[in-house]
Amino acid sequence: MRVFFQRNRGKVVGGMAGLVVALLLIFAWPLLLILFLVMVGAFVGGVFDAGRRIGRLFDRVFPERGSTRSRSQKS
Fold this sequence. Notes:
By secondary structure, the protein is mainly α. It is built from four helices and no strands.
């Protein structure tokens, strides 16, 4: 038995790791789904926050003085 484990250490470790992952997926999938959805929500929220920051930066760099279209329509 010891010789088998010495010769096939990678196979044994890989098989055990696969078993652990399979058990996690079978019994803990709701928890994994919740964690995944929380991470996706945090990522999407970060994208919206970054969009607001970029919008404020453009507002500071290019202040709105009035639309050129509204000036031409008044004439």
